[in-house]
Predict the structure.
Amino acid sequence: MKLIVKLPAQLIFCGLCAASFPVNAQDFSPQLTEYGQPNFRGVWNFSNKTPLERPERFGDQEFLTEEELDDTLQSRVARVAATAAREAATSERILNTENARSVEAVNNFWFESDALGENGRTSLVIYPRNGRFPDVVPGTLIQRSDANGVTVIPGDRPVRFTHGGISSDGPEDRGLSERCMVFNSGPPMFSGPYNNNLQIFQNRDHVVILTEMGFDARIVPLEKTEHVDSAITLWSGDSRGYFEGNTLVVESRNFTDSIASIGMRQAAYGSAKNRLLIERFTPTAEGSLDYEVTIDDPDTFQDRIVILMPMTRVDQQLFEYACHAGNYALRNILRGARSEGI
């Protein structure tokens, strides 16, 4: 699916202003399914511009002020204009080059990170109160990478970040997204440059969460039964769901040791082996919901982490995301790196 949404700057600004105040979702009564459950069916977009961790300059400030909102808007407009000018210059140069075979990297047309449901917060992390990750447990491995994949940063397998690499010896030395294994769609789900959509299917006994990035479907039984044996581990964990009022709660355990407790493009914190992940989908208005994630992993972090971001229902459909696992790209990347002696 390629969802192109370009909102006028005024609408983005108004959305930011309106979102700078907390919303009381308890006053909203969502539509129900034929089974009497809150209806989450449809395609939801979770693009956002809010940083995961709060920039230190904000301290304990949870929401942007009106002046800061205005500055944010102006910065976004300036960045969009600068990108358009840069791409126009690149296109002009390519078009005036004889026998040109490439237009360089993917251009801005493919990006869809414009927020449909801004929250006006200074960070997606809402706990700890400073909006930043808590201290890690002493001895926890933190892997860091060059997310552009240009510089190899030596380390040990398994590689748990998504982009970059620790060597050029084999595919297992590259990031999980480069290997088509794990994407920003998680769980938990984080906004990326594009494909920030998921589709929810629902019947009496199950909820299916189909993410666009990676095209992975989690089948979640709506019953508080025991999780599978701890010896069975999964990339997306073993999930169980239930309702708390209007909120859909999904608890996941039994994650593979091959992923991080928090794994991002440029960093990976510890291992998710003993992580408890609790996702809460709460309707806040017609076509809007809050996606709240609690990461409880005492093997990695000294405190729990709570992340909150909005989702917006869109009148679209998902198309298969076919990551090119097994094509020539990764083999030739490794071959080229060896030839250069990286």
